[in-house]
Amino acid sequence: MSDSLKLLRAMNGIHEEDVIMAGEIYFDKQKTRHIQMKRVVSFALAAALVLGLAVAAYATGFFGLIDSQMGDTVVEYAGVNPVSSVIESREEIAQGLNQVPVRVLSLQGWRGSPEYQANQEWQSFYDDYRLNNYYGDEVPNPALKTDPWYEAHSRIYPAYTPAMKEKVLKICEKYSLKPLDSCAEDIGMDSFYHYFGTDEVLNKDAFAGQEYQLVGAEYLGYDSGTFLLQFAYSLDDNYEDDNFVDMKLNRAAKGYFRTGYALFAENEELDEWEYTNGFGDTLSLILGKSYGIVLYDSDYAFVTLQADFTFMQNSTGETASREMMERLADLVNFGSLGRELP
Amino acid sequence: MEDSAIIDLYWRRSDQAISETEKKYGKYCRSIAYHICASREDAEECVNDTWFRAWNLMPDKRPSALSVFLGGITRHFALDRMKAKNRKKRGGGEAILALDELSECIPDGTDLEQSVEEKELEHAIGSFVARLPADEKITFILRYWYFVPVSEIAARMQFSQSKTKSILFRVRNKLKTYLMEADLCQIR
To answer: B68 and B102 share a domain?
Structure first.
């Protein structure tokens, strides 16, 4: 205790400019690492433009970027670029919000699937609604106090006005999807395995020696096995902490409406290829400069694994590679996640 | 009001110095104190103590960054108050959690070298933090200088809580190695 206190007091030795930089991120809302959607350039237009290319992709049997891309948009940010993770200088932060054009990828299913279309329609509505001052609707809306639906779905859909709720329900009806109605949140793999009903999710051998990476794993678990699990993994054989990659494992159960997407820089050159992992699952892999994604489709679920290499790159200067992505793809038993759940 | 003008008020012994400081940095210092003490009354007293101490230190001191100068004083008073409270087994805010976390930085079987001067340790910590990559640096400072809860850091940095905890875990490990290599710990 006394040594810890001594350390805490010694934090007063942190250089002034560093304390100020962190304080600006925390205390000044205009300078936070806040990512705010500015506008959707055109989800529908972008989808139409890539349609021709998609035909070729279907013909070859390989599904990848073209088949998961929902469109382009522009994201506003201050502090840290959301797709390159480059951190602005204090002077740059002080100049206000910047914009970055991005590609939006589906986490719900390949293009053409009802889950993909439902999410695309939601995103278009959501951005247009917010950009146009909620079409004059009151925010916060008094309905939040009288209709228990909002509280019950607050962790599931970004819907907080009657128009948003109505849109969720209409989309479900239009695409014959069920709405998600429950959400559990917890930390730790034991809890996650209990929620999901099986521990056949990760390659446990690959975590031998770095089980601590899973101690802080956290998940959001929805109806019918739709979930988001976040954890970290060290790519270094000696489990050096500098080499860890942040992972997000998403399972979107077929037949349910869920929102959310992955982002890549619009002008970023992406590498994509097919890979069969150690479990025998045939996967589509996409890799940019700092982020990668693994996509897997089955009759019962669309499963994605997002990899964020920025911490490793900042710490070691190493760049993400195909070999790294394939090692990460080997961590997950996609086939087990794609099965029909009891 | 610009910081330099506020400092001038202190140097001229103008009563307005305190009111201008309160206006500009009251919320900032209260936030730091509250995160440490978890008590509005204690936080209020820490902030009042901070103004009083600042009044006594200027002149002769002319801070280069008023926010860090005032925040540092608030930290000092709040940690003292937290320590006293902890002795009486009462309350305690984020600082209690931060103390537990930082105990991991002291290698097993060792103590911080007793002969190490406070200033030497401060200098070592300052150099250590200065060399961290930006995301690690900001996360570490928000947690252990400003005592911001992990959930708030995650929200502000747009990280998951799991990522935030992972970053803090790794930086603490690095600090542990650094303290050993810098001979700042001694075998018990």
So the answer is: no
Least CB–CB distance from B106: residue in A3, A17, A87 = A3
What does the alpha-carbon distance between residue B43 and residue B91 come to, in Å, rounded to a whole number? 13
Tokens of A81: 């670029």
Could you give the ipTM of this predicted complex?
0.80
Which residue's entry shows tokens 């309350």? Answer: B91
Flag if B157 and A242 touch (Cβ within 8 Å): no
| Nearest CA distance, A11 vs chain B (angstrom) | 6
Residue B175 predicted with pLDDT over 90: no
A317 and A187 within one domain: yes
Last residue of a domain, one of B47, B63, B92: B92
> What's the gap in Å between the CA of B111 and the closest CA on chain A?
7
* Length, in residues, of chain A: 342
Confidence band of A338 (pLDDT split at 50, 70, 90): very high
- Which residues are A313's β-sheet partners? none
pLDDT for the residue A97: 59
**CB-based contacts of A166, cutoff 8 Å, min separation 6:** none
Domain extent for A68: 36-176
Across the interface, of A25, A217, A246, the residue whose CB is closest to B156 is: A25
Q: Are residues A259 and A219 in the same domain?
A: yes
Cβ within 8 Å, pair B136-A314:
yes
More confident residue, A242 or A136: A136
Nearest CA in chain A to B99: A4
Domain identity same for A155 and A197: no
Residue A241 forms contact with B (CB below 8 Å): yes
Contact (Cβ atoms closer than 8 angstroms) between residue A297 and residue A110:
yes
Q: What is the pLDDT of residue A43?
A: 36
Q: Which of residues 148-187 of A touch B (CB under 8 A)?
A: 187
CB A187 within 8 A of CB A218: yes
Among B102, B135, B167, the residue with its CB nearest the CB of A8 is B102
- Subunit contact A6:B112, Cβ cutoff 8 A: yes
CA distance A149 to A162: 10
> Of B66, B92, B118, which closes a domain?
B92
CB B141 to CB A14 under 8 A? yes
Q: Supply the angle between the helices A2-10 and B118-130 in degrees, to the nearest 10.
A: 60
Q: What is the pLDDT of residue A62?
A: 62
Please check whether residue A82 touches B, CB under 8 A. Answer: yes
Summarised one tens digit per residue, pLDDT across range A275-319 is 999 999 999 999 998 899 999 999 999 999 999 888 787 777 888
Boundaries of domain holding B81:
3-92
* Domain identity same for A54 and A131: yes
Residue A41 token pair: 């350039």
Chain A: residue whose CA lies nearest to B169: A241
Which residues of chain B does A85 touch, with a Cβ-Cβ cutoff of 8 Å?
135
Range with top average pLDDT, A29-33, A68-72, A272-276: A272-276
**What pLDDT, on the 0 to 100 scale, is given for residue A196?**
92
